[in-house]
Amino acid sequence: MPITAEGSTFRLDTAGTSYWFRTTSFGHLEHLYYGPRLDVQPVDAVAFKRSIQIGATVAYDQSDLTYSLDALPLEWSGTGYGDYRYSPIEARLPDGGFASDFTYVSHEIVPGDTPMLDGLPSSYGTDDQCSTLRVDLVDAATAVRLQLFYTVYDAVDVITRRAVLINASGDDDPEYAAQSTGTAAGPLTIRRLLSGSVDLPDRNFRMVTFDGDWIKEAHRHDHPLAAGLVANSSTTGASSNRHNPGFLLAEGGADEDNGWVYGFNLVYSGNHLGLAEVGSHDLVRVALGVNPHCFEWTLQPGERFETPEMVMTFSDAGMNGASHHFHDFVNDHIVRGDWQHRERPVLFNNWEAHFFDFTEKKLLQLARGARDLGVELFVLDDGWFGQRDSDTAGLGDYDVNRRKLPSGLTGFADEIRAMGMEFGLWFEPEMVNEDSDLFRAHPEWAVRAPGRRTTLGRNQLVLDLTNPDVQDYIIESVGSVLDSAGISYVKWDMNRHISDAYSPTLSEQGRFFHSYILGLYRVLDAIFRPRPQILLESCASGGDRFDLGMLCYSPQVWTSDDTDPIERLAIQGGLSYLYPPSCMGAHVSQAPHQQTLRLTPLSTRFNVAAFGVLGYELDLKYLTGLQKKEIREQIAFYKEHRRTFQYGRFSRFDPRKANKIGWQTVARDGSEAVSGFFQTLATANEGYDTLRVTGLDPARRYTVTTRPQYLYLDRFGELLKHILPVTLDPNGPVIRTAGKVYHLTDCVETYQATGALLAAGVMLDNQFMGSGYNEHTRLLGDFGSALYVTTADLTEPPPTGFIRPGRRRKS
Ligand code: DGJ
Prior knowledge:
ten-stranded antiparallel β-sheet; eight-stranded parallel barrel; 40 strands; globular; binds (2R,3S,4R,5S)-2-(hydroxymethyl)piperidine-3,4,5-triol; single chain; alpha+beta; 16 helices
């Protein structure tokens, strides 16, 4: 049993981790240990020692001067009893004060997960996969109750936590009354209620966060922790591209494969707050939950408030170790329905090709081209409805624009299906343009603060999803479009931060942000639960809402509007610490890239996008026959290795040099691996490069070979004259024409090696450095890259299964 309660101690054990706490003699929950799995008793050795009064602390009770809440590692902390660290709760309790002191009453352990009651999505698992501990606490002075839930996912080494606060003032339940001195009924106002809080002994941690903005999402930042508080927070109304809710705590010296790393995340899509606070006694408080920004929620007697679920993991095998747990958790216990564990189609999206400027004829021509490349799903993006010819009008009016699509949606979708592809459609249902029929009919549905100026983002207003009438309108209008055209994929976009937060239908404005997200979840559930065949890709200007809450509804998320592969290395790489490749939409687009003007090779665009859910998003009419051939081969290759790319064991390598990035994914049965070697900027006279492939059977024999890729003549400019037998103008018509039909192939290397050798690293051939060229020269230059495929020797006995990368310690 992964959860045991013996005496006052609770032991939550997963396959590789242990999380222990106990009740103290005063009834508080004292955190004992979170780390590699330990099967020892008693637990005293790991407990925080207090044989004397700890400094100038406030004593909780004069009977024991060594007992100070400020110096104890706690599982939960209240306010007003001498703990001055950041408390997970700030609430005016029914007695009118802010003090709260929750102490143990009882607990229950049940198999499986426990459903959330208040409209929040949560992780899930069968009775074999998880079990749940509920600890009931009470604030004796007011009879207010707190329930802490811990769900333990054994195989994936994840524990989730959440809190439920119940205003039980006035209630005379005998179980609680025994411990309660005050029972006068009264309202309770929550100003902050985080999902969980835990105090860990400091190991010289740094907090690793994933931050950015539009087109630069999820860049990794490391914040060394020192005395005080580091916050990772969003106040935009969404989980945001500014600060993803997920973060890591990595011990000093930890890297991708070594060291203790804790991971935290939140199953929530709205404003969040995560924090790490180094207190004065070398304990680090980590807490996470709904952001208290503009939050106020009153509970009348008998009412309750449930927090979103906080997710925790631990690995002593570095950041990759923590990421592997998170990846398995998302694939096995967050993503649900028909698309769970299912291979995602290769899609083509018309956005970067057309923006709003398309006709049915243009679309069909594009779709035919996409079909010929091997695409499986054609997605019509923004601009298909109402008067939507730019981003200034039409949002909210989901009637097909017959000028652009004379056959209507149904006719158009039929044409796409007749080509042998599925049809997908874009919506932005949470928003409205002032210039729209919806706004003219219902101006009161737009979020605006009365008596104040209205602020627009991307020329649009937010619809008031706290209002059930608005929710119903969206459920009805989107649902009927979906049914009218047999749509099998939806891109659900959301393109602005919330401002002017106010709703006339709310009893208190402090509910706005959380109610908005609850409204969104209700809408998503009502639309997509009855239509489980639809693949939902959530999007918010790219990755403005890439979180575990959205992943409960949408198995994949459009990662970023940035399709430049060099930028994507940071974006997909950053998100990979928290989320698996199976949920990252990744497209190949035209270069120079619309976001950066950077010119990158088509091969690199594919090599990066392949480590996600592959799509294409470009105008095919400007491609040469050769480029189309290359794309056709890319798609065929991706399909061949799709399961490995989407569901393999994905890992990052610590960069040996700042300009080199290495990724790999290993098939779950150990039969193959695909590695990506990426070079951002070339440096002159490059040194050696190695290819490491980890996680394979050390004794087994493998063949590793470069995936052949095209090198176009225009990459070499005047250098061509040195390798051609005749002298030709490198910019002249002959070379330009030749460049459309002829390409070089980059150096292909093939090695046979054991898994052990591959883990140590294969030395690759030299890179071009201006001193010669032959078929053994790797021609990477700026933004060059290559994929390497490792396959197990089939003459050997089959592997025994997936092997975790070795737990190497640094010497
Ligand atoms: C933002 C999305 O991220 C883009 O991919 C595209 O769908 C546009 N919105 C359309 O307006």
